Amino acid sequence: MNRLLLLLFVGASTLCAPAQALSLRAAATKAIHHDSRMAQASAEIDAARASRELALSSDRFTLGFAADVGRSELRTDAFFPQSGLRTPNSMTLQASQPLYNGGRTAALDAAARLQVEAALEHRRDVGGKLILAALTTYLDAKRDHETLQLSQATHATLQQARRDVSKRFDAGEATRTDLAQADARTAEAEANVRRAEAQLRAAEIMLTRLLGDVPAALDADWPRKLPTAATREEAVRLSQRAPAVVSAQEIGHAAQTQVRVATAEGRPQLSLDGHAGTRDDTEFGYERLSTWAVQLKLSVPIVTGGRTSARVAEAEAKAAASRFAAADVQAFYAQTAASEWEILRAADQVIAAVEAQVRAAELSLDGVQKELRVGSRTTLDLLDAERELLAARVNLVIAQRDRGVTAFRLLAACGTLELYNIPD
Predict the structure, then answer these.
(1) In degrees, to the nearest 5, what angle opens at C-alpha 421 toward C-alphas 418 and 424?
(2) Per-residue confidence at 11, pLDDT binned at 50, 70, 90?
């Protein structure tokens, strides 16, 4: 209930705000409210609850009323009944109270209750997947935006380098090879810019799909420390209670309960039935006839042609299939949690190494620029240094994105990716 209240509060504040830069938590909340899959999951919960009411109704008192009226004619040479036009009409009141149905109602109720639990967990799973998709796409777009900025800056730098080489060529200080190398690297930089633009547009399209629009700015910091599992064993243990795992297990239990439903079909059925009715102007005369009756009704299946045993076998096979499916989901989430935990553990070391790569590439470029002015370096050395610095900076952006996405994936695999533990 507390999580639901938090979701509604944050969602209301997000939806009422004008289009602007969004935090990670606001983006996740907006995705939950915008995407129709959450509404679909809620509708499935309503359907499961209605199915439980339907199951319980099979053991409840029922009362029905029927009436009819018509016009007919009877012609006969006999003394009784009399010939003539008639207006036959009747009214009947029927009631029934099931007393015993072999445990079928209890089994149906248990199965429906488990289906409701599965539907509730499924909605949590859908919400977690939407949150993960929104966060991943947000960080993808942020990565592509920063990559585009780096590519544009490098392209501008190489264009200036191309002009410098052209001046040196005109002055006889550079060769046609230097000029061709500068042209090649400038064209490569332009290709990088166009590729980054396309990737950013693709990420924005996905953001629009999830959020309804593209935020004015993707200015959230790269996620750093998130409340993830401290050990791989803890991550695997938490994954066993992930919503998808619990939902699959509840579906398996519900399928097992259907075996009891099928078995009940071969047991006696007992009910207390009653009816009262009146008929008038019938084929037997013009007088009104009234009747009533109360009776115990017993039905005992003796030979069903193999129908009951076949239904039981079918239910048992489906229950086994559901158990195997639940075991597969459980194993998948355990594997995912363990893998993401190991990747996340190395993420900080990767970022530290890439940051060292950036610092070294910056020093290298600065040194090459100075050495080029005194003639101890070539144009190719400068172009190589520019390329290495761009690659290092892009690698840093990618590593920061990967660390954030991996942390969110780990939380999702452990079933703990909720709005409250997302950076705001």
Answers:
(1) 110
(2) very low
